[in-house]
Amino acid sequence: MKHKWHKEIKAWADGAEIQKKVFGMNGEWSHWYDCQIFEWDNETTKYRIKPQPKEPQYLYVTRLI
Question: The whole model's pTM is what?
Answer without folding.
Answer: 0.73
